[in-house]
Amino acid sequence: MTSRVEHTDVGAYALGLLEADDRVAFEAHLLICPSCRAELDDLAGVASVLHGIAPVEEPDPPTPEGQDDVIDLLRRRKAADRRTRRGTFVIGMAAAVTLVAGGLTIGTQLDADGTPQVAQEHSGHMGPAEQFYADGKPIDGKGAAGVTGGLVVESKGWGTHAALKLAGVQGPLECELVSVAKSGERRVMTGWSVPPAGYGVPGSPDPLYMHGGSATPLPDIDHFEVVTSAGDTLLTVEL
Predict the structure, then answer these.
(1) CA dist., res. 193 & res. 96, Å (int)
(2) How high does pLDDT run on average in the chain?
(3) Alpha helices in 63-222 (DSSP H)
(4) Distance (Å, rounded) from C-alpha 61 to C-alpha 93?
């Protein structure tokens, strides 16, 4: 099992869909990978929602008397097809765990490769949004009093992907990251709640990192805004 495969097996492991050998290998990987352990904790509750969902398999037809080698061969091929379908189901359900997590968790958006991820406060490891931000070239924004932050953006086949860093925000607030096209069209890229403790403020020093996605192509975007549900603009990022 390669390191790339190990990192993508969290959803399948959470659902108990890994084969025995892969499960043992993944558990060994968990001992040395704090990122996967944290992601597994995030998905633990979601796995219980999907527990018991499984691919529907057709039963084998009654065995005819006097079956010959041809029938045995057909059955072996059918069993192989089932294994292939089961493997596809494992991959699909691993993705489904993350998608459902996105629906149940505040502040969820897309990873750099389009995979939904859970944005969270800093907890001793870099989450996907923070890692993407750290590896990119941030564009600093202009914030309201005390608010700081920026974006790392990239063009995708489906539109525009962005990672946001936001600090100096006191809650409780409800916020959205919005892309504003050159035509004036506004698209909400992601939304979240700021707890009373806030982000990047005394007593809660860690900034917030979020992923967001817009269907508007990057060349067509004029700027981005972080706005509150009350209509106040906390941060503006010009391209």
Answers:
(1) 24
(2) 75
(3) 69-104, 128-135
(4) 28
